[in-house]
Write a structure and sequence with these properties.
The protein has 5 helices and 4 strands; from the N terminus they run αβαββαααβ. With 128 residues, the protein is of the alpha+beta class.
């Protein structure tokens, strides 16, 4: 089981790296990858699907392209592990910042607070 998780993590890392490099070569601008780690609130998990559908549409409307969505199978190391991980690629960090300030994104605040016990969102660019 641990071997398959490590393989999954390595595959995920490689796919992000290769897709980021290919996109960066297209117009020599570093792409931004939004990484989302979440722990679902089991009391409101029935609302998760609706929330995710709305968020994926917001990402799409802002030029976001899903790199992948993943479910944690087993925690290997650390005190806490996310249940879900999503990686979304964007043209640049300004696009992400603008999206996060948009009323449509903000309108999901209460639902987001109910659906997740823990939610971490970061945007990253490729290491040189």
């Amino acid at each position: 089981m641990k071997k398959s998780i490590l393989i999954c993590i390595l595959f995920l890392s490689a796919s992000v790296l290769f897709s980021s490099k290919a996109q960066a070569q297209e117009n020599d601008t570093p792409k931004t990858v939004l990484v989302i780690n979440a722990v679902v609130n089991q009391e409101h998990k029935q609302e998760l699907h609706g929330y995710l559908a709305q968020m994926m549409q917001i990402f799409k409307d802002n030029g976001g392209k899903p790199v992948g969505r993943y479910k944690t199978v087993e925690k290997i190391k650390g005190s806490q592990a996310p249940e879900m991980i999503a990686i979304i690629s964007f043209k640049n960090s300004e696009t992400v910042k603008k999206m996060l300030e948009d009323d449509e994104y903000k309108s999901l605040f209460k639902l987001r607070e109910r659906v997740f016990n823990d939610l971490k969102i970061v945007f990253c660019t490729e290491l040189n």
